[in-house]
Every structure is written in C-alpha cells, then in structure tokens.
Amino acid sequence: MSEGPVVTATDLRKSYGDTVALDGVSLSVDAGEVFGLIGPNGAGKTTLVRALTGTTAVEGEARTFGVRPADADRSRVGLLPQEFSPPERLTPRELLAYYGGLYDESRDAESVLADVGLSDDADTWYEELSGGQKRRACVGVALVNDPDLLFLDEPTTGIDPAGRRDLWELLEGLAAGGTTVFLTSHSMDEVEALADRVGLLRDGRLVAVGTPADLIGEHGGPARLVVGTADPAATDAGAEAIRVAGFRVERGEGELVVEGVTPADLGRAVAALDDAGVAFESLTWTEPTLEDVYLRLTGEQFEGAFTPGASVVDGEEAGTEPGEGEVEDVVAGSEVDG
Ligand SMILES: Nc1ncnc2c1ncn2[C@@H]1O[C@H](COP(=O)(O)OP(=O)(O)OP(=O)(O)O)[C@@H](O)[C@H]1O
Questions:
Q1: 301 with 251, same domain?
Q2: Same domain, yes or no, for 140 and 244?
Q3: What's the number of domains the chain is made of?
Q4: CA 176 – CA 180 distance, rounded (Å)
Q5: What DSSP string describes 235-292?
Q6: Which among 133, 211, 147 has a CA at the least distance from the CA of 177?
Q7: Could you tell me where the beta strands, DSSP code E, fall in the chain?
Q8: Is the confidence metric ipTM above 0.95 for this complex?
Q9: CB pairs under 8 A, 24+ apart, for 73-76?
C-alpha cells in the first residue's frame, strides 16, 4: 500500500457554456480510504469523477498516483461510470473475459462473478438481465483489473437491498485490503455506512468535507423526539406542556416534534406530557443522520419532510398551519407506546 494521497485535486474548474459544473474543487484521498461524494443532481459529481479519471479536460490540477489522470497506469484504476452500457449480447462471464482481456493481468472471472453476486446468472445475455443484475455486472467490470483505485459513480442504483448490502461488504473488504474507493451516491445510508470521509458538492463547490460523524455533529442538527398525538386538542395541550417544560417544539399533523432532546431529557419530556394528561400514541426518538446534513446544507427537502426551525415555535411564528409539516419515516430510533 502506497503512502500519502492517491488522489489530489487542486482548484478544479469546468464550465459547459454558461453552466459552471466545477467551481474550484480541491481535495485529497489517501490510500485505502473510502471517499463518499454526495450532492444534488447537477452539483458536478460526475464531472468531478470525469476530471479525476482523465475523461474530461478541466482547469486546475488533478493527480492520481502522483501523475495526471490521463497518464496514470490504467491497470491500477477501475471506473464504473454513471452511464455504462456494455454490449447487450454478451453474458456477464463473457463481459468479464472481454474487459479483462484489455489488461495484461486480470482477475479470474468466476471470483468476480461471485463477488458481485452473479454466479447464477453468468450465462444470461446482458440485455436479459434485470436492472440490478446489469448494475452488478457493470460493477464487476470495474473490478476485473483488481484496481488499487476504484471510482464508482452511483454503483448500487437499481440493486435490491440485500444486494446493496452485499456490495457494501465487498467494498469494505476491498478498502480494508488497501483499495482506495471514490464513491458517488444519492443514498445517504450507503455513504454513511461506507465512507471514511464525505464531501458534499453543491453548485460545483465542495461545501463540507469530513467524517460522517463530524459532519453529523456539525451540521446534522439536534436529536428529536416525535410525539404522535391522538387529536388536535392533545396536540395543542402537548405543545404547551412541552414548551412549558423548556423544550423547543414544532407541530405537525397528529404529531409534535421536540428538538434537542437528549436521552437524559426523555423522562422529563414524557413526564411533562403525563402531568398535563396529554394522550399520545407513540414516541419516537431519532438522532440526526447524514441525510439531515444533506438536507440542511443543500437546502433541499424530501417530500413530506418538515422544515427544521421554520414552523411553529412557542406558537408565535406565523406562516405554518398545523398539519403542514410532516416528519419523514423514522430512520433510526426507538418507539415507545404511550
Ligand atoms: N456534456 C455536458 N454538456 C453540457 N452541460 C453539462 C455536460 N455535462 C454536465 N453538464 C452540466 O454540468 C452540471 C454538472 O453536471 P454533473 O453531471 O457533473 O452533475 P451530477 O452532480 O453528477 O448530477 P447527477 O446527480 O444528476 O448525476 C449540470 O448543470 C449539467 O447540466
């Protein structure tokens, strides 16, 4: 395993006409590190991957293994582009033989097929594979030269949950063995699970870089208690009781969202509801995730998600009708019947 950064970028810039795709991106990725790149559609992720793999010309300086990407030893780099359409009338086994043949040395096709979970479909034409099986085959192609540096642009799109987890395990194993992985994904759980460090790209700029834990600590916002309330009267009474107990509370339809509740606060919050005789149907405590970081830093909202800090606090702020906000499904947390 080599020492020091395997990938470096200094002030990368790229425009397509008036569209600025990269607006001064600098980063470095060390050997054996999994770097996760996230950001909204059009943020510049694919352009950055292309810059780092030498498939598009950019301003600034990009280096892989210390040389310009176009000059890097191709046998050491694997690339799964976002759009990759191998020949339709080849089977996964043939595809691996075909792409493996481009290198002086390549991995045994059977072991790659096993790695990506395609051993049973190894002799089906590519065009007859399901979407997820196709993507597995494409991941296999990126692995066939046993690369030291692997670029994966949205590798698990279309792959079922079990298959995604298998691929995560595979990537973790590769990284543990010293492979450097540069991963872009729209799946926050994927990036949180895999990445040692995460970079968030927005409008061509890297607006945050850090470990998932650091980014969540810095930008994820507070832990929350969501109280499912039985009826509007209970929602009103619950909001008041929680507020009086000193918490910051927001109201949604049939629920209250109490922000900044630590595990040590839970008892006091529940006691406030009980003391006020407020009937509640559920209690869910959630800690912030990388998804919260993403939402806060991009200003995006998932449909149905409420806007942190933008609705009723102390019942005073205007502009939000009860029922307007709705909290997304619980991602991590515990439910307690009330
Ligand atoms: N070949 C091209 N010609 C013109 N504009 C382009 C081209 N490629 C990308 N762009 C523009 O550059 C910007 C960045 O695109 P890019 O594909 O890098 O974003 P992305 O973050 O990968 O998006 P997505 O999440 O949708 O894959 C977008 O505004 C896009 O429209």
A1: yes
A2: no
A3: 2
A4: 9
A5: HHHHHHHHHHTT-EEEEETTEEEEES--GGGHHHHHHHHHHTT--EEEEEEE---HHH
A6: 147
A7: 5-16, 19-30, 34-38, 59-64, 77-80, 149-153, 180-184, 197-202, 205-210, 224-229, 248-252, 255-259, 280-286, 334-337
A8: yes
A9: 74/103, 74/145, 75/103, 75/104, 75/105, 75/145, 75/147, 76/145, 76/147, 76/148, 76/149
Residues 71 and 168 in one domain: yes
Tokens of 264: 């040590």
pTM for the full predicted model: 0.82
Are 157 and 190 in a shared domain? yes
Predicted confidence (pLDDT) per residue in 120-149, tens digit: 999 999 999 998 899 999 999 999 999 999
Indicate which residue's Cα is closest to atom 27 of ligand 1: 41
Same domain, 159 and 19: yes
Domain hosting 331: range is 219-337
Name the residue of 45, 152, 184, 206 to mutate for ligand 1: max ligand atoms within 8 A of Cβ: 45
Mutate to test the pocket of ligand 1, among 25, 46, 83 (most ligand atoms within 8 A of CB): 46
